[in-house]
Write a structure and sequence with these properties.
Blueprint lengths: L2 E2 L2 H23 L4 E7 L3 H17 L2 E7 L5 H13 L5 E4 L9 H5 L13 H8 L8 H12 L8 E5 L6 H10 L3 E5 L6 H6 L3 E4 L16 E5 L3 E2 L5 E2 L4 H4 L3 E4 L6 H19 L1
Parallel strand pairs: 1-11, 2-3, 2-4, 5-6, 5-7, 7-8, 8-11
Antiparallel strand pairs: 9-10
Helix pairs in contact: 1-10, 2-10, 6-7, 6-10
The structure holds NADPH dihydro-nicotinamide-adenine-dinucleotide phosphate (NDP).
NADPH dihydro-nicotinamide-adenine-dinucleotide phosphate binds next to helix 10.
Length: 281
Amino acid sequence: MYKIIDGKLIASEMRDKLKKDIAEYKLNSGKDIGLAVVLVGENPASQVYVRNKIKACEEVGIKSYAYYLPAETSQKEVEDLLASLAEDGNVNGILVQLPLPKHINSESALRLIPESKDVDGFSANNIGKLCLNSQSLVACTPYGVMKMLEHERIELCGKNAVVVGRSNIVGKPMAMLLINADATVTVCHSKTKNLKEQCLKADVLVAAIGKAKFITADMVKDGAVVIDVGMNRDENGKLCGDVDFENVKQKCSYITPVPGGVGPMTITMLMYNTYLSAVRR
Ligand code: NDP
């Protein structure tokens, strides 16, 4: 019998708690918590993400400062804005919606976000601290996955965890978090030989690939916990994950659906990170 991990429910419980904690913080400190969101250009998907983030801020009581810059904004203009937000005492978190237009050097711009305001957890310092297992702001999606596993009381110590995907924003921090939780971790990617064999060893399998229904039932061990980070469109244009959910679920002890799994956790963790950066200030 498998259990579907309800990310929507876990995220909503977390947001309820966060709303209370933020109200208490504001009452005790007399200060607001602020998140600056910077969007350069008119990418429609980015506009939706930014809208959702601003909506989430309203829901939990975080003040949002949105900066909508035209696509032709120069490197210097973006960097000047980030430098001023870095100094702004009302801003606890800075989020730059990626991807930035091609003429902007993202790496050099993002470097201007101080570690303490890097609520996406993408900076070299925060990633380094995650590797050292010391206090850091952790990338929202993998952090959300950890909260889901924790919520379901899934034991990780000594378990074989396999992460398929090695991106800087999902796969690598995910692997690091699982190592820090005492799992034995294998990271797979497009050059991995015998992917199926690797996946079959997983007590916990995290798919962060970006290919619709790529993980099939023959790649999953009986009783595995399967976490699907993927967000893709299937042949009918319907949102789906990296896991062939309908056929894989029968083999699992736990599985996350798409939609309604990891997705709702990501923005919630962004709110949580913004709260954390205010509390730690
Ligand atoms: P990337 O494209 O940056 O990384 C994909 C990874 O998958 C790469 O490491 C790549 O390997 C690996 N990969 C690709 N093809 C194969 C293959 N055939 N076999 C094994 N590994 C393969 O994607 P992201 O990490 O940014 O995102 C992954 C998925 O998660 C996407 O669907 C994205 O939309 C979704 N996502 C969902 C979020 C959420 O909130 N739910 C948040 C962020 C992402 P290599 O490095 O060798 O190229």
